[in-house]
Amino acid sequence: EVRMVESGGGLVQPGGSLRLSCAASGFTFSLHNMAWVRQPPGKGLEWVSRINRDGSITNYPDSVKGRFTISRDNAKDTMYLQMNNLKPEDTAMYYCAADRAWTPLISGNPTYSGQGTQVTVSS
Protein backbone atom coordinates (compact mmCIF):
# COMPACT_ATOMS: atom_id res chain seq x y z
CA GLU A 1 0.00 0.00 0.00
CA VAL A 2 1.34 3.40 -1.00
CA ARG A 3 1.38 5.96 1.79
CA MET A 4 2.58 9.54 1.78
CA VAL A 5 2.16 11.29 5.11
CA GLU A 6 2.77 15.01 5.44
CA SER A 7 3.54 16.65 8.77
CA GLY A 8 4.87 19.89 10.20
CA GLY A 9 2.10 22.28 9.30
CA GLY A 10 0.55 24.72 11.72
CA LEU A 11 -0.16 28.35 12.54
CA VAL A 12 2.74 30.77 12.17
CA GLN A 13 3.07 34.54 12.15
CA PRO A 14 4.15 36.41 9.01
CA GLY A 15 7.91 36.25 8.69
CA GLY A 16 8.08 32.97 10.53
CA SER A 17 9.32 29.56 9.41
CA LEU A 18 8.03 26.02 9.19
CA ARG A 19 9.56 22.74 8.04
CA LEU A 20 7.26 20.25 6.37
CA SER A 21 8.05 16.55 6.07
CA CYS A 22 6.64 13.88 3.77
CA ALA A 23 7.23 10.28 4.81
CA ALA A 24 6.70 7.85 1.93
CA SER A 25 6.21 4.10 1.86
CA GLY A 26 4.90 1.42 -0.47
CA PHE A 27 6.91 2.45 -3.52
CA THR A 28 10.57 2.90 -4.45
CA PHE A 29 11.13 6.42 -3.20
CA SER A 30 14.55 6.86 -4.80
CA LEU A 31 13.15 6.16 -8.27
CA HIS A 32 10.56 8.91 -8.06
CA ASN A 33 10.78 12.63 -8.58
CA MET A 34 9.01 14.50 -5.81
CA ALA A 35 7.15 17.76 -5.38
CA TRP A 36 5.25 19.92 -2.97
CA VAL A 37 1.99 21.42 -4.17
CA ARG A 38 -0.49 23.59 -2.29
CA GLN A 39 -4.11 24.60 -2.47
CA PRO A 40 -5.02 27.97 -0.96
CA PRO A 41 -8.57 28.37 0.38
CA GLY A 42 -11.03 28.62 -2.49
CA LYS A 43 -8.33 28.29 -5.16
CA GLY A 44 -6.80 25.60 -7.33
CA LEU A 45 -3.66 23.56 -6.87
CA GLU A 46 -0.28 25.20 -7.49
CA TRP A 47 3.13 23.64 -7.32
CA VAL A 48 5.66 25.19 -4.99
CA SER A 49 8.75 23.04 -5.52
CA ARG A 50 10.00 19.84 -7.11
CA ILE A 51 13.13 17.77 -6.79
CA ASN A 52 14.57 15.03 -8.95
CA ARG A 53 15.42 11.50 -7.87
CA ASP A 54 18.85 12.13 -6.40
CA GLY A 55 18.19 15.67 -5.21
CA SER A 56 20.57 17.30 -7.67
CA ILE A 57 17.89 19.37 -9.44
CA THR A 58 15.28 21.58 -7.80
CA ASN A 59 12.70 23.98 -9.26
CA TYR A 60 10.62 26.72 -7.69
CA PRO A 61 8.03 29.18 -8.99
CA ASP A 62 8.84 32.86 -8.53
CA SER A 63 6.28 33.14 -5.73
CA VAL A 64 8.43 31.09 -3.33
CA LYS A 65 11.93 31.28 -4.85
CA GLY A 66 14.46 32.34 -2.25
CA ARG A 67 12.11 31.55 0.64
CA PHE A 68 11.38 27.81 0.26
CA THR A 69 13.91 24.98 0.02
CA ILE A 70 13.02 21.44 -0.98
CA SER A 71 15.22 18.50 -0.03
CA ARG A 72 15.05 14.74 0.30
CA ASP A 73 16.69 11.91 2.19
CA ASN A 74 16.49 8.75 0.12
CA ALA A 75 17.85 6.68 3.01
CA LYS A 76 14.79 7.68 5.06
CA ASP A 77 12.25 7.80 2.20
CA THR A 78 11.43 11.32 3.32
CA MET A 79 11.13 14.70 1.63
CA TYR A 80 11.23 18.09 3.28
CA LEU A 81 10.17 21.67 2.61
CA GLN A 82 11.85 24.40 4.60
CA MET A 83 9.69 27.52 4.42
CA ASN A 84 11.12 30.84 5.60
CA ASN A 85 9.78 34.39 5.63
CA LEU A 86 6.24 33.08 5.38
CA LYS A 87 3.52 35.39 4.08
CA PRO A 88 -0.25 35.31 4.54
CA GLU A 89 -0.59 34.31 0.89
CA ASP A 90 1.31 31.09 1.69
CA THR A 91 -1.72 29.94 3.68
CA ALA A 92 -2.84 26.66 2.08
CA MET A 93 -3.10 22.91 2.41
CA TYR A 94 0.29 21.53 1.41
CA TYR A 95 0.58 18.14 -0.29
CA CYS A 96 3.53 16.03 -1.33
CA ALA A 97 3.48 14.31 -4.70
CA ALA A 98 5.54 11.65 -6.44
CA ASP A 99 5.97 10.56 -10.03
CA ARG A 100 8.60 8.74 -12.08
CA ALA A 101 8.23 11.48 -14.70
CA TRP A 102 9.07 15.17 -14.23
CA THR A 103 6.20 17.02 -15.86
CA PRO A 104 3.23 15.52 -13.97
CA LEU A 105 4.58 17.05 -10.77
CA ILE A 106 3.60 20.53 -12.00
CA SER A 107 0.73 19.56 -14.28
CA GLY A 108 -1.38 18.46 -11.35
CA ASN A 109 -1.56 14.78 -12.18
CA PRO A 110 1.16 12.90 -10.24
CA THR A 111 1.02 9.17 -9.68
CA TYR A 112 1.00 9.46 -5.89
CA SER A 113 0.02 12.21 -3.46
CA GLY A 114 -0.65 12.57 0.24
CA GLN A 115 -3.54 13.86 2.34
CA GLY A 116 -1.96 17.20 3.12
CA THR A 117 -0.94 19.33 6.07
CA GLN A 118 -2.44 22.77 6.75
CA VAL A 119 -0.23 25.84 6.89
CA THR A 120 -1.79 29.05 8.15
CA VAL A 121 0.16 32.30 8.17
CA SER A 122 -1.57 34.93 10.25
CA SER A 123 -0.89 37.45 12.97
Defining key terms:
single chain; mainly beta; 1 helix
Largest sheet: 7 strands, mixed
Strand content: over 45%
- How much is the radius of gyration in Å? 13 Å
Question: What proportion of the residues is helical, as a percent range?
Answer: under 10%
Task: Give a verbal description of the structure.
The protein is mainly β and 123 residues long. Helices cover 3% and strands 47% of the residues. The chain contains one helix and eleven strands, in the order E-E-E-E-E-E-E-E-E-H-E-E. The strands form two sheets. Strands 2, 4, 5, 6, 9, 10 and 11 form a seven-stranded mixed β-sheet that branches. Strands 1-3-8-7 form a four-stranded antiparallel β-sheet, with no helix packed on it. The protein starts with a strand and ends with a strand. The mean pLDDT is 96.
Question: What's the helix and strand layout?
Answer:
Blueprint: E1 3-7, E2 10-12, E3 18-25, E4 33-39, E5 46-51, E6 58-59, E7 68-73, E8 78-83, E9 92-99, H1 104-107, E10 112-113, E11 117-121
Parallel strand pairs: 2-11
Antiparallel strand pairs: 1-3, 3-8, 4-5, 4-9, 5-6, 7-8, 9-10, 9-11
